[in-house]
Amino acid sequence: MTAYFRFIIRYRVPVLLVLLLITVVAGAIMSQGVIASTIAGMFFGDNPKYADYLERTRTFGGNDVLIVAVQDAQPFAPENIDRLRRVVDEIKQIPTVRMVRSLLDAQHIKGVEGELIVFPYVGKARDEPDLAQTLFAQMRDDPLAGGILLSDDATAHAVMIEFDPEIDLPAEEGPTLVAKVIAAFTDAGYARENLRTVGFPAYVAAFMEQSTFNIKRLFPFVCLILLAAVWLMFHRFWPVAQTMLVALVAVIWTMGFAVLLDREISVLTSMVPIVILIISFSDVIHLCSAYLLELGNGKSKDEALLASGSDVGKACLLTSVTTFFGFIAVSFVPAPIFRILGAVLGFGVGIALLLAVTLTPILFSIIPAPKPWRAGATGHVQDILDRLLNGVGRFTEKRPRLIVLLFVALTAVSVFGITQLRIETDFAKRLDKNHPVRQDSDYFKNAFAGSTAVDVFIESDRPEGLFDPDLFARIDRFQQQVEQLPEVANVYSLVDLMATLHREMNVGEASVSRLPDSRAALAQYMLLFEMSGGKDLEQLIDSPRRTMHLVLQLPDEGVRNAYDTGEKARSLGAEILGDDAEVEVTGLIYLLGDWLDDLVAGQRRGLLFAVLAIAVMMVIGLRSLRVGLWSMAPNVLPLLVLGGYLGLFWDQIDSDILALGMVAVGIGVDDTIHFLMRFRIESRRQPDTAAAVRQTLHFSGRGIVITSVILIAGFAPFALSDYLSIDIMGTLLPMTLAVALAADLLLVPALVHLKYMRFKK
């Protein structure tokens, strides 16, 4: 590292020109990025199961639907019917809208003297106001409308907007579409506070809103926090300017690389600039701290510059390599959003190190030698650090066994907590409980049968197809048993329509079965329904009459719950229908639940890879198998504490939280490296272990405390986000870093005093 410092200082002008050129190019590339997210882009990519789902949507429609619940106590009032019709007509004019379903589409079926009459509920209510209340009650009990288009308490109705998946719309247009839909309602006179939006389009729009917040609001705020923290620690301008300059260049390079990989900046990628900013600050602070300490020891400017590169520069190199492995492990998660995030973070860590060890010594060489660190107000801060570090040194020297026992007890409690973990993903719950979309989701779950849909397709290649009366009766039994599952709020399908048709066509009969008992009757009812003006059959059965669509409505929006429920339905279908029909389960939420186990397995593999790779690098960097392996104790401990805390105090954890472990181990290991690298040097210089520990705490402990404070302060503003995966970076990650700091200042010295870690003299 010393030779590298000599080289870049000698050729600093051409080096600066090259860095400037790369920064300009990276900035130009970065400017081409757009804030955008899609479910397919974030999670599925080229997943064949998702491709099969899209193929089904071409025939039956999909459940990637925006639902607008309208709170209206008198939806059958003539003026409200007219207003709803204007809204639906306007929404249908939006080019990407494939279909709109509302109260206007709910059909009343009535048999009169052997004839079938099909008419819209609202149309009849408008023409004959005296029948409005009767029709209203009948619609609430209609299995194809109640709980779907009309709320259970009949105080709200739903408008379902399905967008055409065939139209390749830029992802950044998603929030614009949601806004256009809402505008159609407000322009027609609906109060915005009476509109509730749920469904994936609403969630994605909220996620993109958080992406914009991260870049435009959170990033500048974190910059100010970091600048204030550096000023507090150094009380001089040049460390503030130097750290910010290096960090901003690292951010520009990293985001240029991110846009090269994927032009669409997702909600997770949007937090990369802040993470790289914080990591860059950490590297530069260690170099600045070492530079000032060397100056304080009486060395000249050039000697101090090279000495800081020789000692701390090597530690920074090792910390960046270990952080790289921690971040790149995120790419093990089998989803595009995580693969890109891991690659970008890994690249960013390398760039942050390169720029820190390149720009920092150049800037040291340009600016005049700073005044001694302890001059002025800075001395008060350093005196506080001295007292803290001296107290830590005395405590670890006198009570090493007690410290180890306390950390062992903490580990045992944490392991127990980990056994209580339950992993689930609920996209609505990724938003803060006070976020409007989260509140709308909670309202919809209480008012309707549920916004989560699981699609079940029953396909038969028998000669009579699905209209074999015995098979049709078994499908009915299958549907009823599925509806009895505690996780299911409602099931609707062609069976409900056939039961209604059969009842209405046999009014007055003494004893009528639930369903017709012949293929001819089933086919005749279908034909009669269509000839009488019935609509929307294409959502329930295909034209060859060989594939039927059942929709399971679930009040719980968890993806694992959707998958488990779908698998229960599949099992029931195989048991009841046998070989006469094939049961296929799909749907966006179901597929995400199917993918969840793969995601968790990928995160576990990534975490294991990170821990093993970091252990190997510790052994190599510290040149000791024994010390390298023992050094993983303070680095694994924060992960165990994190898992234990979640298991003991959270009912369930979102799958994204697991990725936090890889980030935490990648960052948390840095302080251990700085301590042990310095202890390795001091153990050769000092007469005994206690003296080596005290000197290590004086030299590296100072940088460890300062960088930990800066890391915690830098990540804390993430807690301002309404998106869970970002919020935990501001709450759980600082907690984990605090545990890591305690382990590095207490547990590592205690293990050294107990001779578990020692270097040759």
Which sequence of strands runs across the widest sheet? 3-6-2-7
Mean pLDDT across every amino acid position? 84
Low-confidence stretches: none
Number of helices: 26
Q: Which percent range describes the beta-strand content?
A: 5-15%
According to CATH, what is the class of the largest domain? Answer: Mainly Alpha
- Quantity of strands, as a count: 12
Helix content: 55-70%
What structural category characterises the helix and strand content? Answer: alpha+beta
User: For this structure, what is the CATH homologous superfamily of the largest domain?
Assistant: Multidrug efflux transporter AcrB transmembrane domain
| Level-2 CATH architecture of the largest domain | Up-down Bundle
Shape estimate: elongated
Tell me the distance between the termini.
Answer: 23 Å
Radius of gyration: 32 Å
CATH fold-type name of the largest domain: Multidrug efflux transporter AcrB transmembrane fold
Q: What does the largest sheet look like?
A: 4 strands, antiparallel
How many domains, as an integer? 3
